[in-house]
Design a protein that fits this description.
The protein has 4 helices and 14 strands. The protein is an alpha+beta fold.
């Protein structure tokens, strides 16, 4: 990256750090949202498995209805798959589906909230044709980037990866598939995790931010990287995807 690019990256992260710090100050001055908004979407369907040990860890990790998953016979809508059918995985090759789960996410006071909040990963956000088409999944669902799994919610950058608004819809149907062992599957060209029991070790290291202070420290490390680079893998991945988002926007 050029010196100008590094300066711009440091400036961007410094501004984000200020925003996070101010947000934390404001949040401490007002009552917290009720517990239901923190744990799901205000109804029993908003909580579930798929935890990943960070602030998105208690939501269901699922794909939106219509997501194309690579199976033995090519890409198939996830809701059309059945137990016993094989899907392509990174480590296990063609692997039969052990179980399929689904749930309906409902708006709360006109908003999508909690760890099951939908995230849209736009075409090419993770790499060339990764995904090949826009991909919508819950914030707690981890995607595979540079050898790590990172919850989609921790990669939101306001450009190539955004929180889904789904205007005009009050409910969204989500699906996920469980395999005999946790693995990486192909969802529309993006590499994403299969359903994982929180008690089971992930197939590759799992990264994420443990709340606002964790993200603030990450932003500060990236802001100071112009002087001394002590960024951790989660910082590098976030910065790389944000740089890519800016390049895609510039080329559009």
């Amino acid at each position: 990256m050029s010196k100008t690019g590094k300066v711009n990256r440091a400036r961007r992260n410094a501004l984000k750090a200020v925003s996070l710090a101010m947000g934390g100050i404001l949040a401490s001055a007002v009552p917290q949202r009720r517990a239901s908004a923190q744990s799901g979407n205000g109804n029993p369907n908003g909580t579930g498995n798929g935890g990943n040990g960070n602030h998105y860890g208690w939501g269901k990790a699922c794909f939106l209805r219509g997501t194309q998953v690579l199976a033995r016979d090519g890409y198939r809508a996830i809701e059309s798959l059945a137990v016993g059918e094989a899907v392509a995985t990174r480590f296990g090759g063609l692997t039969p589906i052990k179980a399929i789960s689904s749930f309906t996410l409902c708006r709360e006071a006109g908003l999508w909230v909690g760890p099951s909040r939908p995230v849209r990963i736009k075409r090419g956000a993770l790499g060339e044709n990764m995904p090949a088409v826009d991909l919508c999944l819950t914030a707690s669902h981890a995607v595979f980037v540079d050898g790590f799994l990172v919850p989609a919610g921790d990669l939101v950058n306001g450009g190539s990866i955004v929180f889904e608004t789904a205007e005009g819809q009050d409910t969204l149907d989500f699906f996920h598939i469980a395999l005999e062992r946790h693995d990486i599957i192909d969802a529309g060209g993006a590499l994403c995790e299969s359903l994982r029991d929180p008690a089971v070790e992930p197939c590759v290291p799992l990264l994420g931010f443990n709340g606002g202070r964790s993200e603030l420290r990450s932003r500060l490390r990236s802001a100071l990287s112009l002087v001394v680079d002590r960024r951790q893998p989660i910082d590098l991945i976030r910065d790389e995807l944000e740089d890519r988002a800016l390049a895609l926007a510039k080329a559009a």
